[in-house]
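Task 17 of the worksheet. Students: predict the tertiary structure of the chain below and write it out as structure tokens. Keep your answer in the requested format; marks are given for formatting as well as content.
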Amino acid sequence: MPTPITKKGYEALKAELDRLRKVERPKVIEAIAEARSHGDLSENAEYEAAKERQGFIEARIGELERKLADARIVEITNRSSETVVFGATVLLLEIQSRQRKQYTLVGQDEADLKNGKISVQSPVGKALIGRRVGDQVEVTTPARIVEYEICEIRFEEL
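Model answer:
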């Protein structure tokens, strides 16, 4: 099943993959060769560290390749919807504290709470999907149940 992602999120994953392939992989291969040139590999900490780094890089390359292959870019520019959908920026009012919060619903790999981007698979994201302005939603968090009212749904360039 395709995984939704914004164009910007897709480009960021692609840039990371390119950097790993073109910069990090060659650097670690060079580090392994350098460590090998020092002789006995059984007690060579540089060699072990470089091999460990190589394993991490190769695993991340594989992970990024799978994610990009499964990704489905969802265009959100000039989009409108009466309900909360992927890519929507939602203005919420927390009922108990009367605080306003704003979240943009993005793919799991794009989530960045500091910048107000939450995954559609997060508890808040799941609770908001399909809801309309004026709806109230309950979200169960580890600490408590939080109630929000949806005040606005809009779409912005990410």
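Marker's comment: Residues 3-73 form a domain with the Helix Hairpins fold (CATH 1.10.287.180). The radius of gyration is 22 Å.
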